[in-house]
Amino acid sequence: MANNKVITLKKTGLEDAVAIARKGTHCGMCRIDFLGSGLCPSGKKHGYLAYWPQGRMELVKHLYEGRIKPTEKLLEIANSCTLCGICDKQCNFTTQLRPEKVAKAIKDYVNNLDKSEFQNVPEDDILRGLREIVGDEWATNDPNIIVSYTRSIIPPDVELNYYIVMPESTEQVSKIIKFANKHNIPFMARSGGTTCSVTASYVLIKAFSLDHGIVIDLLRLKKLEIHPESSTATVGAGVTTFELQKVAYTHKLRVLAAEAGAHYCSNIATTGIISTWGNNYGSFADNFVDVTQVDEKGIITKHSDIGILNPYSTETGFANVTMTPSKIITEAIVKLHPIFNDEVAIFVPFTHLKDALSMLLKLGKRDVGLSLAVLSAKYLAEFLSPTFQISRDFEYICKNYLKLNWVVSVIGTKDDQKIVEEMAEYTMDQSLIKSLILGAPRFSVLKDSEFLRILSEEDDPLKALFAGPMRKHLEKSLDPSPEQVAKVYDTDLQDFFKKVYSKPEMTDVVWLHAFRILPTRMLRQRMFSGPGGSIWSGDMDHILNWIQMFADVGDKYQLEHSLGFITPLDHGNFLYMEYDYFFDHNDPELGHKIGKTFIETMEQSYVMGKVITLLDYLFKGMYRKEHVLYPIPEGISKEEQVMFRELLESTLGGEETW
Amino acid sequence: MVKFLSEEWITYGKQFMLEKIDPAKDLKNLTTSLLCVIENVPPNETTMNLYLEFQQGKLTDLIVNTSDTFTEKEAVFVITGLYGTYKDIIKGNMSLSMALLKNRLKLKGSKIEALKLIKPIDVVIDSLRKITDEFEE
Q1: Is residue B56 part of a domain?
Q2: Domain membership flag for residue A168
Q3: Residue A403 region, left (φ>0) first, then alpha (ψ -120 to 50), else beta?
Q4: Which of B40, B44, B47, B82 has the highest number of chain A CBs within 10 A, making it the mutation to test binding with A?
Q5: Residue A488 DSSP symbol
Q6: Which helix (H) or strand (E) holds A254?
Q7: Which pLDDT tens digit goes with each residue over A55-89?
Q8: Mutation for B interface: A205, A318, A651, most B CBs within 10 A
Q9: Which of A326, A333, A338, A363 is nearest to A348 (CA)?
Q10: Quick check: is B41 in a domain?
Q11: Which residue among B40, B98, B111 sits closest to A181, beta carbon to beta carbon?
Q12: For chain B, how many structural domains are there in total?
């Protein structure tokens, strides 16, 4: 029977769609208008994930595998797509995927089905109750909608025993929670879903997902108001970082931004806003003035309520790890920061990490710059390159010919620029970075060129390139232009991308840093896990040993790995590091290895001490940094290490399942 | 098999824990007390309390009552959560520690001390699972 089903489906063309869909990573970039191409009209109208390109990609896989049967809703989902092609543009920019082919395959498949065979999904008492709260349209138990939330809150291997509900107000969230409690049904709020999708392939899915119950999709809480007079913004839980930043920019204001597609309120609740601007703009509770939140009993409170218990205090250490926010933030009043007219971007290239970190710390401790980070060559290559292959070649050239392994990235004013230029022997300015963005395809083909061979024979290739006459030759050979970079895209998209790359902001490093649309390229058709945390900055050897530990664990499990970025915090007293392990999220064996790397690196971090691990960061974003980062922890004892293992085994299962 | 929190369950539970759990091997001779506050118990959304006391790994007291407050004894640890959460734990759908990490249970008491009890308490839950398969709906 199963074979017959597959044969039938193959005829419909779903097989090609599934091949595309398996590469989807739920980056969520199809839900923000970051290219000025507009938004998916179907998703915008219907809200549920199944109506967005990322949801369709999930849906088609499960339809193909027989996890769900077609329903009337599937027909509606399929036919709500106008094949406008917006998703292809957005997805191609970040991941080179073509989700429209998936939408078309579903459309063709569903419209050829015998509608009399559609599964009937009756309304039950729970659904009726939820619909009374939010309206008929905004609560469902249809498997074709539920399944689209797989990997972004629902684990891939469970029965679809869920309801999806989309409230539009804090009061509705409160009513849903009270209703769920009354009926003893677990619930979990979902925003962008990216954190869940990153953890979906390995052991943390057990902690980050909902095994059954009510998924509260917060997308409809779209309130967004800027208050220029107080440099603040009121942000609903459905507003993404990109949307907030876009509106803030129209007032010459900027918000501390992490992932573009992440919902801002959720980002606060999850880890706080982890960003390269954190040394200047602050971290954890520094970034908001007030929050409206709903607790596990459905009670609505605000931080500004008089008489509430101190909401900013927490404890760190593995005994205080938590895997879900204590409250659902439905609205926040967040701080905005001024944009200066003389902001510039400067990159300082380095061969050795220790040298890069020394400069970063000097800058961080002196509060120089607005955004500060050490980026690895891999990070830089992933961000600047339009395709995966180009990023590979870009990185290869940086490491093997230029000895460019790290850059200190600084966004600051002209005053900051002067300080940086006095400290550095040579820098990469905005004009050169722009050339690298628009000339990335040409740069990558220089891989085996005579030019690079000669350059690599210099004592200091970086100096020869960035402070000598070679720079002129490089810029000339790159022939940077929107036309040049657009050529690497599919033929039918080249005109569009020529226009995209002609926009000044797409090569403006300050804008790109502030809007954070390029980091999603890390999710190009495969997943990554980015453990790390904050380390006390006072001991360089300890920092380097800590970083080496992450590399050693990556080697041990034979994973592609690289330090992502390091940024100072709290006036340079700490350094936050993300260390990335890349893997195919469809391969369970690799997922298993990723689980092990996560646990081992966190355990070793606790043992080493002076580290606030990513585990300690989880769901601590609403607290004061003074409580999360201090006191700086010492390494745990052998006895505590045993307890840590026991905690893991009790929550995540035995080591064989990690 | 008996209904969770029923009179029979209390009797069987006591008997089972006394007979089948090894104080030294399974419970590491622990001496502590634990109050489980179980909210929203169907059908009337009442609150029930389950108090367990151990001396040197041996169950010395097990009390179940229905009341918004529990004043009979003062427990070292108080764990509060919904009936549905306790049901998931007893049925083995979720571990106690995962329920705590996911805020489905609230713990009052030292967390680091509570962590030391994870393994022994898991043994107690395992034993309760063996006598319970019926729950209020």
Answers
A1: yes
A2: no
A3: left
A4: B82
A5: T
A6: strand A253-254
A7: 999 999 999 999 999 999 999 999 999 999 999 99
A8: A651
A9: A363
A10: yes
A11: B40
A12: 1
